[in-house]
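User: I would dearly like some help making sense of a protein record. I have put the entry right below:
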Amino acid sequence: MMGELYSVCSPFGKNYEIIFVDDGSADRTPDILAELASKDSRIKVLRFSRNFGHQAAFSAGMDTARGELVMTMDGDLQHPPRLIPEFIKHAENGSDIVIGERLFNRQNSFVREMTGRTFYRFMSAVTNLEFKNVSDFAMYKRSVINVLKRLPEKERFLRGMVQWIGFNKKYIPYIVEARKHGQPKYTAKKLLGLIMSGLTSFSAFPLRLAFWVGMMVFAISIGFAAYVFIDHYLNPNPLIAGWATLVILVLGLGSVQLMVMGVVGEYLYKMFNEIKGRPLYIVAETKNIDKNKIEQSQYGIHNI
């Protein structure tokens, strides 16, 4: 990766920095990054005290970056560094945010690829924001970074936040190549968590859906009650078995109630996390970063 980054950044001379955020890795990543930083002062390293998540890592990089243009990308080469000059060109031509739009991901199965595309279409429909098939492979002008840093969310969904703040955007299509080394650590569980975070952060759709499901069940209950009442007088030998009917109704209504409670609980949990006021991340160690000049943000704790 470093070879490609150096090749892309060499035309800029010394006027750039490369920030690595180590999200609590348990392998040799800290040693490798420390060695790279010892050889080049432009390479800066933030190491979290534990795994705080993908979105926290990008937020930490944004908090630390000092450039007028800030590029965010994964470190597994699935976000191709060779496209950085094209991102810069569009930023210099007036785009405030330049985002890589995935045409296809060679790493994903067909089912996962279609699930992702369906999710973004659904998000666009329920939030009135434009969600394309993108990740966090993007370039931001300093003015955009400053706005993102002022947003108070502790549970962050950057792809949604970027759409919410507006600004002039440009999308660059690219194909996500398969990882050359290692296996993806973004599991289905983490992906589902990101989907839930995005949906509950930018839409009240789950709450409204729960309300309308409740109304539908109520209407069915009224209709069923009317049917039983009429049948009681018209049919001396009722066809409906009392116990079976009762069990079905109790199970059905109980399921709806649990579903509604789960939706409300998800929103309450998000509110609870925001109220606690805990930092978004904690940095245990830095390399080539002056701790006295690190901007203390409301999202992270740097010096421990």
